[in-house]
Amino acid sequence: MNPARRTTAATATAVVLATAGGLLGALAAPASAAVTCNSPVFKRQFFANTAFSGTPKKTDCDSVIDQNWGTGAPATGLPRNYFGVRWSLTRDFGSGGPFTFSASGLDGIRVYLDGVRKIDLWRNTSTTVYKTVNVTIPSGRHSLRVDYVNWTGSAKVKFRYAPRTSATVDKVRPLAPTGAAVTYDQATSKARVTWARNREMDLAGYRVYRRLKGTGDYRVVSGGTLLTGTSFTQYLAPTGTAYYYEVRAVDRAGNESAGSTDQLVTTVDRTAPLTPVVSASDDPVRGVTLDWQDDAYGVTYDVYRAAASDGEFVKLGLSYGSSRLDETAPYGDTSYYRVVAKDGAGNTAASQVLAFTRPLAVPAMDTAGTNEAETGIELRWTTSKAAPAEFRAYRWDRSDPDAVPVHVVCESYRVGNEADYYPQYGCTDHSAERRTSYAYYVTSVDSQGRESAPSRTVYASRRDTTPPPTVTGLTHTSTEYGTVLQWDESTAEDLASYTVLRATDARDTSTYEWMASLPPGTTRYVDVGVPDDENWVYLVDAVDTSNNSLYTLSGNPADVVANVSVDEFDLTPAHTPPHTAAWTLSAEADEAGRAVLSWTCGTDCDTSGFHVYRWDRATQQYVRLTDVPLAADARGYTDPATPAGTTSHYVVSAVAAADGSEMYTGLAPVVVAPNEG
Prior knowledge:
Blueprint: E1 14-19, E2 22-27, E3 42-47, E4 58-62, E5 65-70, E6 83-92, E7 97-105, E8 108-113, E9 116-121, E10 129-137, E11 141-150, E12 155-163, E13 181-185, E14 190-194, E15 203-212, E16 219-220, E17 231-235, E18 242-251, E19 263-266, E20 279-283, E21 287-291, E22 300-306, E23 314-319, E24 323-326, E25 334-342, E26 348-350, E27 354-357, E28 364-370, E29 377-382, E30 390-397, E31 406-408, E32 413-415, E33 424-429, E34 437-445, E35 458-461, E36 475-479, E37 482-486, E38 495-503, E39 513-518, E40 524-528, E41 535-544, H1 550-553, E42 562-567, E43 583-589, E44 595-601, E45 609-616, E46 621-624, E47 636-639, E48 646-655, E49 662-664, E50 668-672
Antiparallel strand pairs: 1-2, 3-4, 3-6, 5-12, 6-11, 7-10, 7-12, 8-9, 8-11, 13-14, 14-17, 15-16, 15-18, 18-19, 20-21, 21-24, 22-23, 22-25, 25-26, 25-27, 28-29, 29-33, 30-31, 30-34, 32-33, 34-35, 36-37, 37-40, 38-39, 38-41, 41-42, 43-44, 44-47, 45-46, 45-48, 48-49, 48-50
């Protein structure tokens, strides 16, 4: 801080300024002389007015804005009131990020960043005013300007700017260190990494990373403590290994920068790598795969191929691992391979020559199935660009155990993009019969007429999407035991079943319920149910062996599927005893066509016995079936004379022990179909 009090020429000789970067020297100069202040020191100008107009009365350097001039003039030649002071600098903020600007003073103070006002405390006041703002500063160089005016009274001003270093606030990474360099001393096997100091205001330190050449796995080698200097030295074993170093800066919020430019170090190495031992295998589509044992990081492999053992070996490429794919190896011919290992020091080791005969190109079969136009079965296979583009398809009937594959007329065509690296081909077998399951394979034929081994076998049948015709002759008969449906046998050759459905509204498919699935040859169905004057719509649909049916293909089955509307008989008894008993009755027919009744009770179940009644429609009354009450512990009764071919309604009474009165259960119907034997 330079308070700029009135001084004499003798005392204004040299002022030493303390900054974060060290000590900066600045010579006091007359107002008219050019003054240069090294960043981040402010250039300060004094004006004898509050408009900052005219030539400054004095210009000097100020490291910290924190002055209290009281009621006196801030410098010789300035008034005690109505003066202005301007501080300005341009500095490198590194990566920028979140900062805090804090200003306070008596009278007016304004703070600008790149000419944009950030703090405005511009008023004549006798009390100190304060303001702190958070500012995000972009990376790079930016200008700061602080304007202060004193109108009357005491004069004081203070301004601070600092990065916000909380990890929850500062998410901006520091800039990557620059000037990175590395030297390697072969005598000591030590690598020394150096770099230029970062310009970040919130720098905490540096980390040094290293990776093996040929990999992307960087690891910290400078330890767990951040480095505060600008160099790092490390011993490297002299194994001929090549490493890359990079330096990253870390700020006080824990943000880490990107790495500096990679710096390569190669240790001394005079040992040849291991001699590759090469083997080969063929992928019919991708190419010949060459494999060898891997040596170590930093070893690369040059792969060569020749058409003869003593021919010219042509380099196919470079491999960083233990294998390489030769995608251009000729089919049906013998190729000769040699692999040369090379380490980082240039030492080499060559494998023995390997002879490998690649088989003819076998197509890689992908799929088989009915094509979109349903005109046949489409086959698809994949091959390589180096393979021949002539193919043959073979087929046989899967149902015939003695079938022999036969060549089918199946013209091949290219599928997909012409630029595909692994082209796909296809052909359509238009002669395939519907509902016949076939097996297929494909071969390739080269320019010499040689035919490859067959591809893998795929299976397909030509899809049938034609449903059977509408069922004809559908009739219904309402009976006392339900509804009897009859229809004509379907003419469909591939009939699999009939589906019977029932609905309350033929136009509303949500009311449909499945009733039965019946085999071919069945043209009758009985819906054994209690006739109670309901109206039903019955639908009968034919289903073929490919699961095609008009019901599944139609959005409105009632338009195409055979259907009839049925009004049931009303067999409900004319009157029903009130349900006063605590007992609940249920009933069903057994296999012999007899009604089997059972009853249960929850509470208030005292009784001396039970009577069973059956409704007689002829006399319109309930007939007692038990001459003597059933025992009090009885819980069931079988009616040996249950009428067949009709619906019977039963009721059970509980006999009171005190007076022999009866209380009745609810009705329970039992439907028994006629005995057709």
